[in-house]
Each structure stands twice: as structure tokens, then as C-alpha cells.
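Morning!

This is the sequence you dropped in the shared folder:
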Amino acid sequence: DVVTADWADGAEALGAPLVIATTPAGATDAFTGSVSEAPGILFDVLYEPWPTELAAAWSARGGAVVGGLDLLVHQALLQVEQMTGRTP
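The structure's back. C-alpha cells below.
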């Protein structure tokens, strides 16, 4: 199930098994103190600046973090494949 949260409830949403952050740089900085020990997985789609404060706090507390650069590279590879018909 996909559950969304209002911005005012953002700190509570950090307890989900998977958190996807699609906000601009600095927007989630206020939530860093709410990251629990051994959180789930954070997918923070930003790749600059990296790491974000949220990603750094998440990692420091033992959580797995996937960054936006991973997303960017995967998108680029798929685009090359679609445009050329070849797998890079």
C-alpha cells in the first residue's frame, strides 16, 4: 500500500519502511531530528547537494539510503536504450 502524508505530519511519516523524499534541497532539514534508530529505507531523489541533511541523519542512524544519482544514472541508461535500441 502507498500512504502519503501531509507536510505537517512529515516527521511521523519517517517511521515507514520506505520513505521517498522528492522535495527541494533543504526542505526536509527540519525532520532530521525525527529520524529513529535503524530506520527503513530512504530514497532521496536529490543528487546535489549530496548528501542531504536528511540522508546524512538517516545513514548515521543505521538506515539504508538511495540517492538521486542512482535514479539519474538509471534514467540515462534507459533513455540511451530507447533512443538507440542498444543496451549500454
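Headline: The longest strand covers residues 18-21.

More detail when I'm at my desk.
O.
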